[in-house]
Amino acid sequence: MRGIMACCTTLSGGRARVWAAGAFLFLLALGLRLRGIGAESVWMDDFFSAARLDAPNLLQFLRDQRGDNWEMVPVYYTLEYFWACLLPGSLAWVRGLSALFGAGAVVMVFSLGRRLGGMVAGCVAALVMALSPWQVFHSQGLRPYALMLFLSLVSMDALLRWTESRRPAPLAAHLAANLLMLWSHLFAPLFFLPQGLIVLFARGVSWRERFFWGGAHALFLLAVLGYVATIKPAPDPPVTPPGWGNSWAVVTGAGFYAGDDTLTGGVLSADGENLRWAEYNSPTVLRDPAHPLAADLLPLRPAVELALARCYLLTLALALFFAVRCALRRDEESRRELRKTLVLLAWFLVPVAALFLVAQFWKPHAFQRRYVLYAWPALCLLVGVSAARLRGPARWAHAAAPLAMLAVLAAAAAALPMRHDYLSAAGLLRAHAATHPAAMTDNWNLMRILRCNDPGLPVPVERYLSPEETASRAVETVRAGTGVWVLFVGPESLPQRQSLEQTLRDNDIPWGRVILPGMQSLYLYRCDPAEPALVMASSPG
């Protein structure tokens, strides 16, 4: 770790060295995002578009997926369709588009960090961004988040260049990026809030230019409202609004819970979100011999997430300290540093606070960190800029601590499937197709997503209308001399699984069970006319 940071400090000048650092960070980020990308299964969010990629034309593709994907706007899906046409049938290739955007975002963070705080700031910020398993997850998805993230960085970089130079080219790039971003995700307008503050308070920007900026964005919003008016939304889920959380619990550690849906948890504990899902929803993961590294690292996760939250809280405290110190000084350099700090604080805090208010007063379920993914580069930049402003051992400690915590989380995440493991389920059904040629479930989504992951699966998956009917059909099939699989997904299926097990015992049907961990566990019950030669799961979860 110290070697990487020492390398960053030596890259203080020379275009070749800057390009070398940027290339290294891009390749590191891309490698982390491409690692295991072919083993990631299509899950529900991916399925909405993945299942329609064989549409004969773009218009048909957009029309077919809109019923399930009603809340999304079309820019990413247009790119996804044409990208998929370059290598038909490869979902790993399609995921690679998001990986490229995610790696490109890391390079943009490096570039912004260099301009705001020097080479150390750029390198540290980019490394934080590159290692975050949360960022890696969204850079492997078939969703617009990685594209939205990349566009937000292009937009912010162009905006800062425009406020410094007043040239039309960066303004045009900024407006184009914001327009594309708005047509990539409907929560993009929350990103315009801190940008509006930057334009409002930027030195040298005339009121005419401010009105032009505001008018352009008003037209953008009016245009997208026409599309929004055609949306037929699903009913809102019955959830309670998020709470404020307790920042002091981060300091003391008492009562800290990284997975809480509060403003504090949302701000400080995003990086381990998908890892927590895999752990909480997969009760056997700590004892699964297929994932020994995860079994070693996951017990460390709560302490690591607490330490990382403390690093981020310290970063915010340092940013406020530097802002106050610069405000008390009268020289131009201090005022310039103050403006940089305020830009980063507004960039990070304003969208998150706005989303929190949306959840408080309008749609409680909207408090999803990924909706404002574009705010997190500012936190990475604050870490880098704060480290660059410190001196001696304090600099290295402030840089190395979050990177070490992120490395642990990244290693644990790399050892587990971060999505539902439908590919392994399909592989298991294929391996036993000769003796167990049928599969059953009462879950419609499970049936169609499994087929999407393996379109040529030789075992047909039949869906029945109730768990009772599924269990009854399984018993009839086994008594007729044919082995069968019964499939469930997620912890909410526990009552159905218990009912099936009781039915099988009551009818003296031999059975075994495999649990495949992931974002939600898949439960595969193998019902056999003879005793199954199958290792059963070690946990009743």
Provide structural commentary.
This protein has 541 residues and is mainly alpha-helical. It has 2 domains: 2-414, no CATH class; 422-527. The protein is built from 24 helices and 5 strands. The protein has a 5-stranded mixed beta sheet, sandwiched between helices. Strand 1, helix 22 (444-453) and strand 2 form a beta-alpha-beta unit. Helix 17 (301-328) crosses helix 19 and helix 23 (467-479) packs parallel to helix 24. It is globular. Mean pLDDT is 91; it is low at 532-541.
Question: Can you tag this structure with a few keywords?
Answer:
63% helix, 5 strands, globular, 541 residues, 2 domains
Number of helices, where a helix is a run of at least 4 consecutive DSSP H or I residues = 24
Number of domain units: 2
Rg calc: 25 Å
Task: Give the biggest beta sheet.
Answer: 5 strands, mixed
- Report the strand count: 5
Unreliable spans: 532-541
What's the rounded overall pLDDT mean?
A: 91
Strand line-up in the sheet with most strands: 2-1-3-5-4
Could you give the order of the helices and strands?
HHHHHHHHHHHHHHHHHHHHHEHEHEHEE
What share of residues is helical?
55-70%
Shape: globular
Structural class: mainly alpha
